[in-house]
Amino acid sequence: MRAAVLRNGRMIERDDVTEPVPGPGQVLVGVKACGICGSDLHFAKHGADVLELNNQIDGFGGSGGMQIDLNDDVFMGHEFSAEVLEAGPDTDAPAAGTLVTSLPILLSSAGFEPIVYSNKTIGGYAERMLLSAPLLTPIPNGLDPRHAALTEPMAVGLHAVNKSAIERGETALVLGCGPIGIAIIAGLRHRGVETIVAADYSAGRRELAETMGATTTVDPADGSPFDDTSPRVVFEAVGVPGIIDDILRRAPVGARVVVAGVCMQADTVHPYFAIAKQINLQFVLAYDPAEFTDCLRAIAEGDIDVAPMITGEVGLDGVGGAFDDLAHPDAHCKILVTP
């Protein structure tokens, strides 16, 4: 079986991967499409740092941390759609041929493993993979499987919106219009927020932000995004050191700040800025099952149009090149792998 794997910091294609066999409660699926996530790009370059930080988190260390050998091939790909091929023994699952997506978690008799980075659990950058029958969500008839594959990243944005508890009449400011920021904008529009300001240095990303629902866009090179707005909720989707402190300094009194950008470096903030203005600071990650199914439904019903986000498509032999292309943010938003 063919799959793209991470080896020595580079994505390469293999044609000798052992075919996975579904156990009880599992199904074998044929991958239809898988989006390349920014977290995959970061792991490819900084995998050792990611593992070290995860193992320092209380409750994540020891046997609960990521047990990954970077000297061995690593499977990735967690934004996927697929076709059911075969169910494991004594498994109640959708019929063969059913198109599905799923939370990226593989259940087994030994427990569970996230389908994110693994030396053994195959992800969506492969011809076939295993999924958990209880977690499968059928793709509504007629929905393009390529669009269904974006359910996962869109759920990340919706989760950030839900955590903010934003009301329709409150102004939202989204800093950063990469895939996470775009998903937040789509989530805000889906929730009926009337004023959505998006800021990014890239003209292409600002244009995409407008397409996805932003009512106003700002180029930070022309001045602070806070100058002409008074946002009640600020979404940080950049993930670089210094930006949280800058937000706390510039945000209005009583603002709510939601941090969705993943910063892997040490950072410094002045708590006094937040204390003086009684700012609520919320960090977010991933989503819950209800948000996942809500996004799939919204995409299927046309409430969220993900088509403009798809800016490229490659086969398994093109994954390495796609990782290189995505290092230049002006060129792409989301590249899909279609095995």
UniProtKB/TrEMBL annotation:
Domain Alcohol dehydrogenase-like C-terminal: from-to ranges: 179-300
GO MF, one annotated term: oxidoreductase activity
Cleaved signal peptide residues: none
Alcohol dehydrogenase-like N-terminal domain residues: 23-140
Lineage: Bacteria, Bacillati, Actinomycetota, Actinomycetes, Mycobacteriales
UniProt cross-references to Gene3D superfamilies, sorted A to Z: Medium-chain alcohol dehydrogenases, catalytic domain (3.90.180.10), NAD(P)-binding Rossmann-like Domain (3.40.50.720)
Origin superkingdom: Bacteria
Protein name according to UniProt: Threonine dehydrogenase-like Zn-dependent dehydrogenase
Pfam families: ADH_N (PF08240), ADH_zinc_N (PF00107)
Organism, as annotated: Mycolicibacterium moriokaense
Keyword annotations of the record: Oxidoreductase
InterPro entries: ADH-like_C (IPR013149), ADH-like_N (IPR013154), GroES-like_sf (IPR011032), NAD(P)-bd_dom_sf (IPR036291)
